[in-house]
Design brief:
The protein has 455 residues and is α/β, with parallel strands linked by helices. The protein is built from 16 helices and ten strands. Helix content is 56%, strand content 11%. Strand 5 (244-248) and strand 6 (251-255) form a beta hairpin. Helix 1 (2-46) runs antiparallel to helix 4, helix 2 (56-79) crosses helix 3 (90-114) and helix 10 runs antiparallel to helix 11 (346-353).
């Protein structure tokens, strides 16, 4: 029986490998078909009066690079995660294809330059990138949908305290794309029940309230029995992510770097902020005018309001926003906003859905009070409450407050302050210019789709 099980497992792995190889072949075909179409468009359409045919030397230049281009394409697709379809949303696929396209155009242009194949036109590279972007996005969406259809529901075991398990269950059930059913929920002290039922489950979720020794035993069981494991991190877990492995003689150790940006990172980030804020203010100036007119016509009160917030090192500053609430919204004192907040005006709902109420903060960014990407700027009243409840909250102030950020993109109106803090600390720990660009691109996606953002 064990031999049959092993043969079945090997057969499944062989089929999966064949499918993946087939997907790679189609990927390469789309890339190369896009290049050929780009040659046709470039020489027979755009430059038809000059050429009217594809010069042989140009096709030869492409022929010299066809194998390196194909290899680069597969490597780029793998690097951005487009060969891993597990529970990817269309936004994640779109973002990954965009990154792949940008990376591909840079690598191919560099390859044609360094190999001196100057007959490979730059216009062809640009057009082929646009065509392959749409081709790959459509193809990857199809593959992802087929992958979801072929998967059975995953049986999930949740381990944690009662309130934690209730929260995780609610959030999992809210997203059908997870294709899961909650099979078991156990408290950490039910270790024997966990070990007895773990074979019946495909995935294990470990909540923050699980003690380290129990967490270690469960993770060992998951590794031994080849189960997917999800660990919802504690604040301490977040602080030790993105560590460097060093050694003292032959003793391995994890080096936990300071939770702050280096001087070089701060300098690059500031230059980046200046460029983006200036471009943003110029491009968004018509939107500013439209928003101002709409707000004035909708309800009495100022178009822009200023409110005290805290930025780096808990330094106070006045943050500017388009008014999205009634003018007397806080007559009873400071209060959190909610998704169905009655204080929000009709125009305010539109501004919030598309994040347009945040646009005046580009001026705060230009002044150096904020950054384009960073933790959400909070009011002193709420910061004081959060720091009393969670001491690690003060680490957010190691960087400037941001117009957008990981917590703003990933969070919803009902996201807890602790979960938002986890996202903020993850951002600081993993900061890079490329990461900022990625978050900005995802923010554009949020604006275009009008998805509600965190409160």
């Amino acid at each position: 029986m064990q031999s049959n099980g092993g043969e079945k497992s090997m057969g499944q792995r062989a089929r999966k490998a064949a499918v993946k190889l087939g997907v790679m072949v189609v990927d390469v075909a789309i890339i190369n078909a896009s290049i050929y179409l780009a040659f046709l468009i470039s020489f027979l359409v755009i430059n038809a009066r000059i050429y009217g045919y594809i010069p042989e030397e140009n096709l030869e230049a492409y022929g010299q690079l066809v194998i390196p281009i194909s290899i680069i394409a597969v490597i780029a697709l793998d690097w951005v995660g487009l060969y891993r379809y597990y529970r990817k949303t269309w936004r994640e696929i779109l973002t990954a294809v965009f990154y792949m396209s940008v990376l591909n155009i840079i690598l191919i242009a560099g390859l044609s330059y360094f190999t001196a194949t100057y007959k490979y036109p730059r216009l062809v590279i640009l057009i082929s990138t646009i065509i392959s972007f749409f081709g790959l996005f459509g193809w990857k969406m199809f593959v992802s949908s087929q992958y979801r259809k072929s998967r059975a529901l995953s049986r999930v075991m949740i381990i944690g305290q009662e309130d934690e398990m209730e929260t995780v269950t609610r959030k999992m059930c809210a997203h059908s794309r997870w294709q899961q059913e909650i099979a078991y929920s156990f408290r950490p002290e039910d270790l024997r029940k966990i070990e007895k039922r773990i074979d019946e489950c495909d995935e294990i979720v470990i909540c923050p309230g699980v003690p380290p020794e129990i967490k270690s035993k469960v993770l060992n069981e998951c590794t031994e029995k080849n189960k997917w494991a999800y660990v919802i991190p504690t604040m301490e877990d977040v602080l030790i992510t993105h560590t460097r492995v060093i050694q003292f003689d032959d003793q391995p150790a994890l080096m936990i770097e300071k939770l702050e940006l280096t001087f070089e990172q701060r300098l690059v980030k500031r230059l980046f902020d200046i460029v983006v804020s200036i471009i943003g203010l110029v491009l968004a100036s018509p939107v500013f005018l439209i928003c101002a007119i709409a707000i004035k016509r909708d309800s009495p009160g100022p178009v822009i309001y200023a409110q005290e917030r805290l930025t780096k090192d808990s330094r106070p500053y006045m943050m500017y926003k388009f008014r999205s609430m009634r003018n007397d919204a806080e007559a009873a004192g400071p209060a959190f906003s909610s998704e169905e907040d009655p204080r929000v005006t009709k125009v305010g709902h539109v501004l919030r859905d598309y994040r347009l109420d945040e646009l005046p903060q580009l001026w705060n960014i230009l002044k150096g009070e904020m950054s384009v990407v960073g933790p959400r700027a909070e009011r002193p009243h709420f910061v004081e409450q959060f720091e009393k409840a969670t001491p690690q909250y003060r680490y957010r102030a190691n960087v400037k407050a941001g117009l957008t950020g990981l917590a703003q993109i990933r969070g919803n109106y009902d996201t807890t302050s602790d979960d938002k803090l986890r996202y903020d600390l993850m951002y600081i720990r993993n900061y890079s210019v490329l990461y900022d660009l990625a978050l900005i691109f995802r923010t554009v996606g949020v604006i275009l789709t009008g998805r509600p953002h965190g409160s």
